[in-house]
Write a structure and sequence with these properties.
alpha/beta, globular, 60s Ribosomal Protein L30, Chain: A, binds guanosine-5'-triphosphate
Amino acid sequence: MKFALVGVGGAGCRLVDRIMQVEQNSDRSFSGGNVLAYDTDKSIFETLDAVPLDRHVLVGDTHEALGSTGADGDIDQAAAVAQEDRDELHREFDKLDLHEMDAVFVAAGFGGGTGGGVGPVIVEALTAVSELPIYVLGVLPTTAEDATITVNAARSLQSFVTHGDNTLLFDNESWYDEERSLAEQYEELNELLAHRLLAVFAAGERQSADIAENRLDTSDVMRIMETGGVSTLGYAEIAVHNPTTLFQRLRALFYNGEEETTDAIRITQLVKAAANSELTLPCDRTSTERALVVLSGPPHLCSRKGFEKARQWLEQETETVVVLAGDEPRPTADDLRVAVLFSNVTTVPRIEELKESALTAIRDQS
Ligand SMILES: Nc1nc2c(ncn2[C@@H]2O[C@H](COP(=O)(O)OP(=O)(O)OP(=O)(O)O)[C@@H](O)[C@H]2O)c(=O)[nH]1
Ligand SMILES: [Mg+2]
């Protein structure tokens, strides 16, 4: 799938920058440089490595209400400024070659003033000007952060889900290490999310792609995302011995006569491990509406039988009729990777908790 990337606020810009770095260091092309980074705080732009200068968009610099460090957690102020400067913000969309894209991802930290305030305005505007699906890549805060951040996140979640076509979430609370400061872990967390996201959405965008057995189609990914609502990703990988020459392969076959069965079992186990892995947003898997499973690795080790069995298992496990599957061949790889996308999950304890904490915080303030 080809998708444009739009980052809003600190978390959004850092995430987009990380995803672009992965793209530049790989043989894949998915955004093709179609990127924008919006923030009310200009200091963020100096920290970006991959997003080029002409794609940095400073929001609200003519508004005195915003100080030199931007919205600073004030979601209402940020949203008001974005609404006022709407036309200027939209003009930047012209830099994106949307005709070449299948979708747009708008990334933001939901707890931020800028991410939570400017983000939904941008999502709404993109929906209005483009026929493409506008997906949100959102980060939920930790429970240890300020009440303002919790309230922002609960409020912006509502707006993002309303305006976006699907909202893929990452929960900092579930993933960060309490022993260390959160900011210190941003890079690792972003890396982890980028890796999972690309395992699904950039599969098939390799320039040297072989023909896959069961090729993952962009239309399949879009069909899974069509549900709207909130989505989450699971992931697992294992190292494999990948004999690449014919001689090595024949020798492996000679020493391991039951190769095919073991390959099938390995694939089934790997899909189960991915589905049961810690999700980017933990949830009850049976509450998902649709699911997608993507397998990637050396084609001769991607057992078709094992993969189909695993897909059926996932169908039962999630009590879902629509479970699509696809694979991405990487002939010289020495690992197998499986990513699972659960779309429109409705039983999500972290979201209930976030809403309750936000209500308590609002009550305490008044
Ligand atoms: N995983 C991850 N989370 C982040 C990152 N940066 C910020 N966050 C989270 O997102 C929340 C919002 O932070 P920012 O994105 O910096 O806020 P902003 O959108 O710039 O908004 P203001 O600075 O308030 O204008 C934080 O409270 C963290 O929970 C990041 O790089 N990675
Ligand atoms: Mg900021």
